[in-house]
């Protein structure tokens, strides 16, 4: 349920623990160097093999570009402004879609956690909506809503909302029984229990949901553009594939990767700032079982 | 009550008569407490000792208004207990500090929940934290504190609103033996300085005797009071009090009683 798609399970527990081990071994600097250098060296090796290997291997230039072609293409695309336009078009769809989807997810998640009746009433339909592959509604949406921004925003939002909904509701419901009992012993109102205990408890999981949402959101935008659009990275992938310009197609892939990673990192960074107690709490066994089970 | 029964102690702060509590599980009804009679005077330190399942925590929660419905009489200053009251402070087995709040913010939580002016309680918070040996840790977060320090912060939190009654449910049960002893001595000191009425649940006989004016001995299946033992040991008590013959005799008596009712686990 709370899967972190880019980093796998328990994303923060491992660095927290290994950091301690490293410090005690006194090799913090060397370890950091290895962490940067090892993947970088691997990348250089792959790029070299790609650059000098694919033509002798018989892969034609109209199928796959070399890294140098790709880099040139990226440079030209951004300097003449073409890629800025395409990137911004897709980014706008993603931000609006993920924003609306996450907002809806938060509101519905709060309602579900607040009221048992609303939970029972809403949840089956949320699950059913999620069961529908959003790709399936793309042609219909483009036809009815049009080739513009709106159809992509709707598809993206419909993808982004579910992980947020599930994680917000789950997080709010996961407040510790003894913390709620403490609040009851203080004669706290339901609203006070909600704001002072449930909401802070739900924050880590909410950010897990948001991180999943922003990594899934580009799928909605790109698929929407495949079906019908006049601009955007997805639109440009279709166009350049038909025109047999592999360097430009691959450039779109690179931009999409960079964009997704950036969005994900921003959400994770915000989460770490706001949920400062969670990573530290992992160090003390008191709360790790409740807070660390990502 | 008939006219021939013993006269009601007018100074009793907590008045329990014929108190019973039943749970309904899926298959059967469980009698958690039956026929409990207990009067607790103002300023008294009462410990409740007994094995798991004897209903001691249930009794404490009922006194605090957290136990739900009950039968029998349960009065606090003459008023039936129905919900938690602001003049009571609770302390649980776990520190239950909120991880996202500093020590000071945790300590002020009861004030915040009661919508009292926090500024007025700041001085009190600081002096209580000092009393509990937490001076300098006001702006630390719970994860930066040891288990014992967390529990001391929880103690300060239960004292902040100056409740007349402290209800403590095995508050030091999760600590190691050394910290537990230290906490008991500190609790004694704080109790003598603040003159609270304390009801303290434990399953440790020495702890029960060391702290108490009176020890309430309970037995399980069904949960009931089997004896109430006066502890005439002089105060202030120190760790050395535990090695006195009177201490050993009282502890031995209680242990034998628990054995006799087959209550020792």
Describe the structure in your own words:
The complex is a heterodimer of chains A (294) and B (265). Chain A is mainly alpha-helical and 294 residues long. Chain A folds into two domains: 15-52; 65-292, MetI-like (MetI-like fold, Orthogonal Bundle), CATH 1.10.3720. Chain A contains 13 helices and no strands. In chain A, helix 4 runs parallel beside helix 7 (149-173) and helix 9 runs parallel beside helix 10. The longest helix of chain A has 38 residues, at 190-227. In chain A, 36% of the residues are buried. Residues 1-22 and 281-294 of chain A have low confidence and may be disordered. Chain B has 265 residues and is α/β, with parallel strands linked by helices. Chain B is built from eight helices and ten strands. Chain B has helices at residues 56-63, 103-107, 109-113, 118-131, 147-159, 177-194, 205-211, 245-260, and strands at residues 12-24, 29-41, 45-49, 71-76, 79-80, 88-91, 165-169, 197-202, 214-219, 224-230. A six-stranded mixed sheet of chain B has the order 6-7-8-3-9-10, sandwiched between helices. Chain B has a four-stranded antiparallel sheet with strand order 2-1-4-5, covered by helices on one side. In chain B, helix 6 (177-194) links the parallel strand 7 and strand 8 (197-202). In chain B, helix 7 packs across helix 8. The interface between A and B is medium-sized, with 25 and 26 residues.
